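Retro notes, item 3 of 5
We never archived the inputs for the glutamic acid complex last cycle. Fixing that now. Sequence and ligand:
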Amino acid sequence: MAKISDNPLDSARKQLRAAAAILKIEPKVLAVLSEPKNELTDDIPVKMDDGETEYFNSFRIQHNDALGPYKGGIRFGSDVSMDEVKALAMWMTWKTALVGIPFGGAKGGIICDPKKFSQAELERLSRGYVQQYVDSIGPHKDIPAPDMYTNAQIMAWMLDEYEKLTGRHAPGAFTGKPVELGGIGSRESATGYGGFVAVQQVAKLLKLKPKSTTVAIQGFGNVGHHAAQFLFDAGYKIVALSDSQGAIYNKKGLNPAAAMTCKLEKGMIAECYYAGSVVNGSKSGVIKNEELLELGVDILMPAALESQITAKNANSIKAKVVVELANGPTTPEADRILQQKKIKVVPDVLANSGGVIGSYFEWVQNNYGYYWADDEVHDKLSKLVTAAFAKAVAKSREHNADIRTGAYLLAVSRVARAIGLRRGI
Ligand code: GLU
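Structure as it came back at the time:
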């Protein structure tokens, strides 16, 4: 029996091997796909406000660029690791290939606790990252974007540093920028919007009506918050929300906008269970983060970290559908258990592809220097996610498999074919 592991890189490799076996991928090509093309890592020196210089370990992992320039976010966090960033880079390769945008896959990270940084320190850290990797980044080379604990302001500092160092304007070198620097208004909500489109598609497939469909969302950051709002506006019943410090549950439904206002005020969502406008009722309560995952809801959306649904808790999952807004929230062992329990999983590479699709539209506009009306973005994004969903479901049926397998078969075969064509294999 395969080893049980919650290491995201083990998960990513197992998923690739499973698809490669079905596709009978050439061993030489599989070897290329199994490892990142470039593993860049270095310490970034940052002068802290107290005058001391501290060093922060950082990464830029470029997994594959057969279909286009490397693409993927940069995350900050104390738990960031080389293996995590390698897995995330590989998942970006499949995500961009699946939705058919001309990018490869990459990811970056800095091991640090961003909550402890002042704005000035954060700026020096962000600029330091670019100084470290300037030669490997570029609009046609590798295009970073925000991820966990990074945002438009950080992209602005990074772009500014990049342009200073290279001596030319290059807005397409980073996406997720502020609008004033060539960003697009809807980029911040793009991942959440794509997740909403994925829910609409799976709801259609399973004949679920929004009004009677309950949703629990783990993670109330940028992605989870926007997804909750789009779902709420479309009539879905959001019954549980969480952040890293706790969760709230109300079977009558929660209002995400009121929950966000309360969270900003109190600092944590668990403090918001009693806010009348948030929970509208008495059957509300604070629950543990683990309990949120095990609620008897129609749709469970993990929107936080990797490896949340594992062999340990998969048997207790009661949702009808899991829509993966986070990257890698379900381990391969848990995936098998969910399949046995006939729980449908809309995989991360599909469900959270809205972010990088938004980035793609931003990059196209930067390259042309011509900017579209904002509402065009949602419309175009929705079409790409809907098309990828339909193709992944059709492929999964062809192989009598789950949607993840369908998505992987499409994505891995596209990248493998591009490598084969380039190398004459
Ligand atoms: N960080 C996002 C993701 O994991 C977006 C990446 C991008 O826009 O390049 O998909």
